[in-house]
Design a protein that fits this description.
Helix content is 50%, strand content 18%. The chain is α+β, with helices and mostly antiparallel strands and 491 residues long. α4 packs antiparallel against α10, α11 crosses α14 and α12 packs antiparallel against α13.
Length: 491
């Protein structure tokens, strides 16, 4: 009942070659016409649940899908309906399926024991010509499904052109190994949008995916350290991939870029702090993530400064109302997440998130305590000598504070919730003031280049210098206050 698949978009300039490759595989064609249902308030969509009736060749089936444990895994329950088109949606089919009942009742807020009179309505349809190729890789069966068609409402339609790789049975690593050559040859890029989500966006006249923020998750104290790290990486990918999809599709906002950077920073922190927990962590991942983060950086830095710094400068009477023009290359960042090397990295991380756990000599909590104590101690040492640190060392302190915060969030479920909350509350002022100082450093560099062409930039540089002095004093005070905070991981 779990569906494991990866979906990709095919670049326009690769489509002819891709179609020729599929034709050589002697693919089996199938016409798919599907009708998707939801409540008038779209309660199923709010829970990422899809409910459809679909004609597959000559037979109808009814399918319920919901989020699974991992981003590329979904709960799926498919029930055969026969050759005749159903007159209406029949939820009584789920009376014998407890998990399906639970999903529907929670999403639709049903109080009665039965699933009748739910008021579900047709939302949109999809009409797809699918070409299917079945491959046997080692002991795994993989289905390649190439879809062309459209999703439509009574007033709008959107084209579908995508390829899905589904693990019918076997090992996820075989699925990802099978996909990699296709990515390299045809420059396929990951797309986490389901047809249901695309249809919902079309119905709601939305062109852009919602910004994805980090989501809570739990570790089990009985998890091995390698399994815990795999769960952490999986959570970071759940944060990253929807934002990466929006950016790759070139339909994104500054929030997508910001959250993509946060997700990458969380990944880098997890691998740096806890990477020694697994022998399957590849040493090159850190450098690859750092480069991806760097390439996203200038765009996000400018967005952040425009939103936060420029209004303050205007209030202070600045003669300059805008940031200086960027001197960096204006490469479109959407290409970053379509690049084969980025897709390969994401697939490797997805594969790692499914890695087999090994047994530990020490408990997970004991290993976590050692790591947190070390990080806490480093920041306390920085705090007492902060005013004497040079610029690079202050920057290092800021990164240490962020890594500590992310690390605490990763392992919070292992400890008493209120104690963790109080610790993060004590850390937050230091993180915010150090972040403000970093913004001022970035702004200073921008306006130092501008002053040669525009003497009015001297006003801005003077204001920045005064503000830096104030924020640094504030940061030092917050760091010293943090050194007196109570830790939550002591025995």
């Amino acid at each position: 009942m779990a569906e494991i698949e990866l979906k990709f978009q095919v670049p326009v300039h690769q489509r002819r070659a891709f179609e020729k490759a599929i034709a050589k595989k002697k693919a089996v064609p199938m016409q798919l016409w599907a009708k998707y249902y939801d409540s008038p308030e779209q309660q199923l969509a709010q829970h990422a649940i899809a409910l459809r009736q679909r004609l597959e060749g000559q037979r109808w089936c009814q399918t319920l899908k919901a989020p699974g444990q991992h981003h590329f895994e979904r709960f799926e329950l498919e029930l055969a309906l026969g050759p005749d088109e159903p007159e209406q949606l029949d939820l009584s089919l789920y009376q014998e399926h407890k998990q399906a009942q639970t999903l529907l009742k929670q999403a639709l807020e049903l109080k009665k024991a039965d699933l009748k009179n739910t008021g579900l309505e047709l939302q949109f349809e999809t009409d797809v010509q699918r070409l299917i190729v079945l491959e046997q890789i080692k002991d795994s069966a993989i289905e390649l499904a190439f879809d062309q068609g459209e999703v439509r409402t009574p007033t709008a339609q959107s084209d579908i052109y995508e390829v899905e790789f589904e693990l019918k049975h076997g090992d996820v690593s075989d699925l990802i190994d099978f996909v990699q050559p296709w990515v390299k040859r045809y420059q396929l890029w990951l797309d986490v949008r389901s047809k249901s989500q695309r249809g919902q966006m079309l119905k709601n006249q939305q062109d852009i995916l919602p910004v994805q923020h980090q989501t809570p998750f739990s570790l089990d104290k009985h998890d091995s350290s390698s399994r815990a790290l795999a769960k952490i990486v999986s959570n970071c990918l759940t944060h990253l991939l929807p934002n990466a999809t929006a950016i790759a599709d070139n339909h994104y906002q500054s929030g997508h870029v910001h959250q993509a950077r946060v997700a990458i920073r969380r990944l880098r922190s997890a691998l740096k702090i806890f990477g020694h927990w697994s022998e399957q962590v590849q040493p090159e991942w850190q450098a690859q993530l750092a480069e991806l983060f760097r390439q996203l950086g200038s765009t996000r830095d400018r967005d952040a400064l425009s939103e936060s710094l420029m209004p303050r400068l205007a209030k202070a009477g600045s003669p300059l109302a805008e940031l200086p023009a960027s001197s960096e290359s204006s490469d479109e960042i959407d290409a970053l997440f379509r690049a084969p090397e980025t897709v390969r990295l994401l697939l490797e991380l997805l594969q790692f998130s499914q890695c087999t756990a090994h047994e530990d000599d020490q408990s997970l909590k004991k290993q976590v305590r050692k790591q947190l104590a070390k990080m806490h101690r480093q920041i306390c040492q920085d705090a007492v000598q902060f005013e004497h640190l040079d610029s690079e060392q202050k920057h290092r302190t800021r990164k240490r504070v962020k890594r500590l915060r992310y690390s605490v969030e990763f392992i919070a479920s292992l400890f008493e919730a209120d104690a963790v909350k109080q610790y993060l509350k004590a850390l937050k002022p230091a993180q915010e003031s150090l972040g403000q100082f970093n913004d001022l450093v970035v702004a200073e560099a921008l306006f130092q280049h501008e002053v040669q062409q525009n003497p009015q930039a001297w006003f801005v540089l003077g204001w920045i210098a005064a503000e830096q002095k104030h924020v640094l004093a504030e940061a030092q005070q917050h760091l010293l206050e943090f050194t007196r905070s109570k830790t939550f991981w002591s025995d």
